[in-house]
Amino acid sequence: MKTLLIGLGNPILTDDGVGILVGREVKRQLSSVEFLEASLAGISLLEDIAGYDRVVIIDSIKTGKGALGEMYKLRLEDLGKVAAPSFAHGVGLRTAIELGKRLGYIIPESLEIYAIEVKDNTTFHEGCTPEIETRIPELAQRIVKNLRLEGIEN
């Protein structure tokens, strides 16, 4: 199964870069997956994901309800309904995937998202807050374990 791992985020917006940092660690442990660092989701990812059987996205999330460093495993359906594209606000991931299908892109059969609850995703600073930084190895290990259980080999 051809798998693409995408670390999403902005590494100069404090915890927003956690998806990239965790993704790098996952890739270090699982050489069989291809890895992409990206700062934008949505329609910009259509070309990148085309042709893969499986895509795993790691990103930050700030709900204000979960514990810092808590990780949620989401499916595309969990991202809300498909919305009409907005040139001012861009296109969300779920809308982009549906649009890609309609345009004939070869969309992966499996798309899963690991979202990590963060503290600060707006302050300009390279590196995560200490609360998130210390969790990176553990979060990566949990994703590696899940992927191995689901058949991804080293």
Write a compact overview of the structure shown.
This protein has 154 residues and is an alpha/beta fold. The chain is built from five helices and five strands, in the order βαβαββαβαα.
**Percent of residues in helical segments?**
25-40%
Query: CATH class, anyone?
Result: Alpha Beta
| SSE order, one letter for each helix or strand | EHEHEEHEHH
What CATH architecture do you see?
Answer: 3-Layer(aba) Sandwich
CATH topology term: Rossmann fold
Radius of gyration: 15 Å
Low-pLDDT residue intervals, each spanning 5 or more residues: none
The global form is globular
Total number of helices: 5
Query: Which homologous superfamily in CATH is the superfamily?
Result: HybD-like
**How many separate domains?**
1
Average predicted local confidence, pLDDT: 89
The largest sheet is: 5 strands, mixed
What is the straight-line distance between the termini? 13 Å
The number of distinct β-strands equals 5
